[in-house]
Amino acid sequence: MKKELKDNIILIEDRDEDIQLIKRIITQTYPNLNLIVINDSEVALEHIKNKKILKHRPKLIILDINMPKINGLELLLEIKINNDYNKIPSIIFSSSTHQNDINNAYSNNINSYVQKPMNYKDLKKVLTATIDYWTNINLS
C-alpha cells in the first residue's frame, strides 16, 4: 500500500509553549500537513544556507521575529536572497506589532506579517485562516 505524502510547513520558533500550541492546532486541524519545527535560529540559518529546508519542499515557512542569537528578520533576509526559496511563501508570525518590525519584514519581501494572538481561541482562528490561505487559496 502506497503511503500518502503530506505537505510540509516549516516553523522557525524558539518558544516551546508556542511550538506546542501551534503543533496541536496543525495536527488537529490539518491531517494532510506535516509540521517541521526548527527551534534554534542558528540551526535554521544553517539549514537555509545549506538548502536543507528544500529537501522537505515546504508549502509555507512560518517565522517568529523575537528569537535569541539570530532574529526572524535576519533569517527572512537569508531566505529571500536565495533564489531557491523565492516561490515558498514565508510569513512572520509574531507578537510584535512594532511598526519597524513590520516595515523591515515587508522591505525584505515577506509574503505576510501576522500578529500572533495571546489566547488559544484567537491563535487557532488566526493560524488556521493563515494556513488555509497559503496552502489552499493562494496559487504559488
The averaged pLDDT comes out at 90
In total, the number of strands is 5
- Ranges where pLDDT stays below 50 over 5 or more residues in a row are none
**Which percent bin holds the helix content?**
40-55%
Number of discrete helical segments: 5
Instruction: Determine the CATH topology.
Output: Rossmann fold
Widest sheet: strand order? Answer: 2-1-3-4-5
CATH superfamily: Response regulator
- Total domain units: 1
* Structural class by helix and strand composition: alpha/beta
Termini distance? 30 Å
So what's the CATH class? Alpha Beta
Radius of gyration: 14 Å
Report what the structure shows:
- The protein is of the alpha/beta class and 140 residues long.
- It has one domain (7-137): Rossmann fold.
- It is built from five helices and five strands, in the order E-H-E-H-E-H-E-H-E-H.
- Strands 2-1-3-4-5 form a five-stranded parallel β-sheet, with helices on both faces.
- The model has no long low-confidence stretch (mean pLDDT 90).
